[in-house]
Amino acid sequence: MKFKAEIDVMPLDALLDPQGKAVTNSMKNIGLSEISGVRVGRHMRLFVEADSKADAEAKVETACKKLLANQIMESYTFSLTEA
Which among 3, 23, 62, 71 could disulfide-bond with 38, CB atoms 3.0 to 4.6 Å apart, if both were Cys? Predict the structure, then answer.
C-alpha cells in the first residue's frame, strides 16, 4: 500500500524563533499590527510504501525522529492518508 504523509516541523515554544520574530515585526510595517506571535517552521510531504497504516506511521515516525526534526529544538506532527 502507498501512503502520503504531511509533516509539520516547528521550533519548540520555549525557544526563540528569529524568523518568526522578523515576520511578526514586518506585519506591523505593512499595517497588520493585530498579527503577533508568528512562528516559522517547515512543511514536508512524502510517500511511503508499507503493508499497513500502522507500519507506515512507524516508518514516518522513525524518519521524523532520526532525520527530519531536531528534537532538541523542534517538535513535529504528521498526518497519514492512503495515496
Answer: 23
